[in-house]
Structures are given as structure tokens and as C-alpha cells.
Amino acid sequence: MTLPAALAMVLISTTAQAQDTESPPTHTYSAPLAATVEGRQRTIERFKKLEAQLDAPLSNIIFENLPLQDAVDALERQTDIRFVIDEKALAIAGVSPRTDVSLITGKTEISVRDVFRLMTQHLDVALINDNGFAVITSDEAAANTFVVRVYNVRDFVDDGSLQQRLGFPDYVEFPFYRDIENSIQQLTPGPWMNIDGRGGSLAHFDGLLIINHNMEIHREISSVLHDLRALRSTSDTAEEESHRSSPVSESLPRRELTNVERKLDMPVTPLAFDDVTLSEMLQLIGGKVGLTFRIDPLAIKKNEIDPTQRFSLRNRTEAISARDIFRLVTREYALELIDDGGIVTVTTEERAKTYLKNRVYNIDKLVADAATSRGVPPRFGGIGGFIGPYYFAWREVYPDTEFRNALQLSIDAPWMAVVGVGGDVVPVGDMLVIRHTEAVHRRVEDLIRQIDEADRARGWSKDFPKKPTAAERAAAEKYNAEIIAKAKCNDRKSDADNGAATSR
């Protein structure tokens, strides 16, 4: 169906009633093309209805080298969604309605949105909700289709814990909105105008964030805020305990991720196969644990992995997880399993590093009574609360700062704060939002588990000073002042020597 015909058909059709499922709403909805109140409301209702349809589950999808148009027609019959193909944008991207797509989901239920994304993953194609119309267009066109949404973040802005975490006394005013703004921009791929010189924009007004960006970024922002609020609510209503032994690694991943991770870790026994292809092996493993696997054709092709390569596994009587079976059999090929909307995608390790996901970790009890290092000026090996002139030194390191540093140093992975690329760790109140790969998230959770276990094994003596006394603070201040004075003196001497050498 072409764009003009579809628009003409939809404009004369009736619209469904709005479904008020969000309470309170995560954000507002935009309807910039309507001039009247009634027209805007109809647009919003149409938009919400399509979002619900795109999030509805599908299963038993079998598309094998099927033309895109035929696959879209099949989806229309199953979902009652009318798709609009922007043929001009697709032609610019080198795609036509006759381009073949493939996807087999088996019994695994995944959303309509993910079905489309996975079957077109090798193409520069995207699906957008354009004011309630399901438009198939190019990746570039989708990335440049911006909408404005307003997010109420007053519950974050009014949180005094942010001020306390930053070390400011209660009477010092601080622009808290910067904290949540920076968090959002760090946890989304962007681009952002104030960072990259192009892309979306973010402004604040009266505890509201006004964000202009594409739909994919808006979905990520909404997801991050939802998870932060859900975890905060869980933490606030939990019973207070004297020891920080309650789970500290509670995160809120999506249901599909939890289900996939659990099944990949299920023990598989007995299992043996001999001289089977990668696809056949994945069918055997998937049948044992109830998962559907797909092979990323683009990644396999780029790494020149032969799809006809044969694999074997001797009969194992001990329990071993599906993830470990795959890792052992394919280890020489550097392949990785990732949760791709409920489907397990087999791709290369390098390509898996580009699949960054946000997870929220509650570290409140982890750092609540943690003993920390005393303050040393940053120039001399210390870590202060701010990045700034080296003469400025904190009296002590805050526990959450020390934990973030330890996490990034101990987990061997690229971190934006360390090497300028990779994942990020963003503090939001008593929580950490970590954006990284699934493999790194597993290591983060394991590190937190080990810290929790080690803490249980042996506690501090009751006489150990958890917080520095006034005398200790005074001594640290004096020590820092002496070091800073010495540093300034050395700098002046060095400048004088350099000046004398220049004059000669």
C-alpha cells in the first residue's frame, strides 16, 4: 500500500477509544499536525492504539526468503495493522518491497515491533509510529523523524538525596535538573545537539524535561525513567534492616530478558550431537530449553564464518547450561548469544559489543555504611568528588564514587569515563544506571554478589570508625593544605626556572 492511498483510507476511518493504561503517565504525547482539541485527541488515541498493537505478542512466524511486501502483508493479516511503505525512502537506502527477509520465531512470543526489526535487521529499514500510522521507512529517515515529548521529573528534581550525594549542605542551592539531564544523555545513544553538534535537544522548565528526538530515543528515555521509579518504589517500601544483607543487585530488566537469561542458564542433560551444522545445533539446544535461536547473517558473513561448518559434542551426563554448551562448542569462532527481544541471536563478539542495554541497580544498602578512603589531592593519586583543578581536594571519598571507580576498574570492558568509548555508569540518587552489554551486566551482578558475600563473611569491629571524626577531618585538611602549598611552591619554582632558561 502506498503512502497517499493509506493516508486517504485511514483519515476517513473511525478511531479507537484511548486506553488509559498509564498511571501516572511517563510522558505526554505530541500531536503537532492537528489544529483542534478534538483533532489532537484523535491523533493521540490513534497513536496509543498503534503502540499497543506493535507491542502485542506474536509467535510461529515463518518467513524464509520472503519478499518484504509479502512479509508485511502476512503481518497485516495477523495483527490488523495497516502498514505504509515509504518506497522513496527505501529506494534511497537500496531496498525495495521485493527485497527478501527471513525470520523463524517458533513458539517464542515476541512483539510485532521486534518481529519487524529482526526480519529486516540486515537492511537499512525501520518501522515508525507516525502519528498513528505504521510507516516502513529507511533507518536514516526514522532517525531524523523527531517528535516533542514532555517528561515530568519533579520526583527526581525534588530528591534531596541528590544534593547530599554531591556533598552540598542543605542550604546550598544546586541545579538538580542537570543531574537527570546528564543521566538521560549519557544513557541514550543520541546524537544530542549540545554534545554532538547535531541531533535532538533537551530543555527544562519548572521540573519538566522537554525533549525533541526520534521515537527510538523516546522509548529508551521512557524505559529508563520507568525502571528508576519502579526500583525506587521497591526500595522505599522495603523493610529497613540493621545490616545491609538484603539483595543489593536487584535490577528491573524486561520480562523477556529475565526469561531468556534464566533459560540460557538452565542445565541441559543429556545432550550429544555429532557433525551437525550451527543451525541444527541451535535447534537441538533450543528444543531442550524452550528458546528460539536465530543467526545474524550479516555478522556471520563479515567474519567469514562458514554456515556449513560442522559441530560435535560428546555425550555429557553432568548438568551444563545451554550458554556453556554453546560457548564450549563454538569458542574458536568468537560467537556470542544476545537477547534480541525474546529471540536469542547468535552474532560475533565484536557485534555483540554494540548491543548496549540500560539496567538499574540499587546500591543504597551497599554504600550506606561503607568505610572509604581518606581524601588525597587528585594530583597525588587521590580521587575527589569533582573533576577540576588539582589543587581542590575533598576531605574523603564518597562511598558511591569509590564503588563506581572500583566497578569500572575491576570489570575488563570499555568504559566511556576510562577510555572514551563503551558503556557508562550514571548515578541517580541511591541508584546506578549502567549502560553496557549483557555480558558486562552479568559481570556487574556477579561483582555485587561477591561484595555482598564478602561483607557477610566478616564485618568491621565495633570500634572501627565508620565516619571520620572532627579531629580526623582537621588533620586531613591540614595535610591537604601542606601538600597543596608544596605543590604551588614547586610550580612557582618550575616556572621561574623555565623563565630563566628561556631568557638565556
TrEMBL record:
This is Uncharacterized protein. GO terms for biological process: protein secretion. One of its GO terms (cellular component) is membrane. Residues 1-18 form the signal peptide. It comes from Stratiformator vulcanicus. It comes from the Bacteria. It is found in: Membrane. PANTHER family: PROBABLE GENERAL SECRETION PATHWAY PROTEIN D, SECRETIN GSPD-RELATED. Keywords: Membrane, Signal. Residues 235-256 are annotated as: Disordered.
